[in-house]
DNA sequence: ACTCAGTAGTTGATACATCAACCAATGGGG
DNA sequence: CCCCATTGGTTGATGTATCAACTACTGAGT
């Protein structure tokens, strides 16, 4: 990795603006979630995945692989959500190690209530600010950046975490 | 505030790709920091700001305003960094409430060591993956998104947090 | 000079993410 | 059949971010 290849002033400006935008966007969406549905963005991701799953339940490892999280993050978050009655754990018949994470009626209500507001916020905060060509460029740009990170990470740690490349929509 | 304005399939695709990219980028940069300099991204931000300040010291409120953080976040982080010997607090002569946060020799060494690797990572992970036109578009796009968020937030909370609009480079 | 609203900063509670260590069950190769 | 590396999941420690409550000080208006 070459040292001393600093960024130009204009690159620094772009990077700074992009950085601030990302932070503000995350924050705005978090606040919107909290205000409108009492969920955090992470909780929404889990509930959303469960809501789309057959029987409205998933194995913990499948949540982790689908969203690209560590298993321990899922476990902790599910514990908190279970305490709040949004999800429930159930034993797994076919594999005594595992357990199913299922959506409760409360959880289903919460996620259904949240979806509309979230999509509206994404439109309002993000897509409404885009010019037509921006979206397509951003799609390709995102792919290239993810590739660059994947390759760079592979150089350092040959055992790849390929699960993170998976789509999770 | 219109409800029921869902996103089209292609918009969802763009959003998902952009989302994954942001997460992976943050993660990659965090890992790079940790591996190369033992700092977190937050610690780097503080040390970097201090390193550029007159006398290599800043008031806590100025760190907060500059980076766009809450004062409590600064206080907690500075406490941890003080424990590790990266910064030191000193009394403020002109305002008995406040205190100066100053860079220690260790802190200065740490940030100098970190800067090169960080900029190289930003280049490698991000700018190398951009096409020439991307950068300029992204700059304008970021500004428009930040504006959209600012306006939207104002609708809900008329008392604006204008500090967050400030530049922090 | 006094009051008091606002400012500077700290602290504790809670939530969240990561890491490492752990336990229990699985299942393939000997 | 048994061993054992692997897998699925939990747990506790640590670091981190946010919020609300608090103390101490400041400075403007009277």
TrEMBL record, chains A, B:
GO BP annotations listed: response to stress
Q: Sorted alphabetically, which InterPro entries does this protein's record hold?
A: HTH_MarR-typ (IPR000835), MarR/SlyA-like (IPR039422), WH-like_DNA-bd_sf (IPR036388), WH_DNA-bd_sf (IPR036390)
- Superkingdom of source: Bacteria
Pfam families per record: MarR_2
Domain named HTH marR-type: which ranges?
11-147
Q: Which residues, if any, are the signal sequence?
A: none
- A Gene Ontology MF term for this entry? DNA-binding transcription factor activity
Quote the protein name from its UniProt record: Winged helix-turn-helix transcriptional regulator
Q: Which organism is it from?
A: Lacisediminihabitans profunda
> Where is the organism placed in the taxonomic lineage, from the top?
Bacteria, Bacillati, Actinomycetota, Actinomycetes, Micrococcales
